[in-house]
Prior knowledge:
With 152 residues, the protein is α+β, with helices and mostly antiparallel strands. It has a single domain, classed as CBS-domain, CATH 3.10.580.10. It has seven helices and six strands. It has helices spanning 19-29, 49-56, 60-64, 78-81, 83-88, 108-117, 137-150; strands spanning 33-37, 43-48, 95-96, 101-102, 122-127, 130-136. A hairpin with a 2-residue loop joins strand 5 (122-127) and strand 6. The radius of gyration is 17 Å and the shape is globular. This is CBS domain-containing protein. Residues 101-140 form the CBS domain. Pfam families: CBS (PF00571).
Amino acid sequence: xxxxxxxxxxxxxxxxxxxxxxxxxxxxxxxxxxxxxxxxxxxxxxxxxxxxxxxxxxxxxxxxxxxxxxxxxxxxxxxxxxxxxxxxxxxxxxxxxxxxxxxxxxxxxxxxxxxxxxxxxxxxxxxxxxxxxxxxxxxxxxxxxxxxxxxx
Length: 152
């Protein structure tokens, strides 16, 4: 199976887009990140939900104490208090390098190996600089289940 068969087409994040737009597209497509393109349209990075949430919603001191937190910390409701400001932020401030890219014609096993190598739940399909879509581990597992149910 080729990766293009599992690809989900998404928007490409560009300068000027907000986190609201990124979140909306990630939720619509059920993906954990989107590619980021420079002014010339080249994929030059990625915008990751995990990275954004880590830096906008979770104070470092809470991450360090995560194993010791109880359920009665409602007074530390930082994301809700800052929700509008977070959503209005420009996405370009959260661009990471794009390590997990692969050709759309690559075999599934290679895609899974690259996801594992870079500890990623998704990768971008890029052919000759053209973005073709994103493939997620969830899509791979969904395909396995669908084929099993078909008896294939």
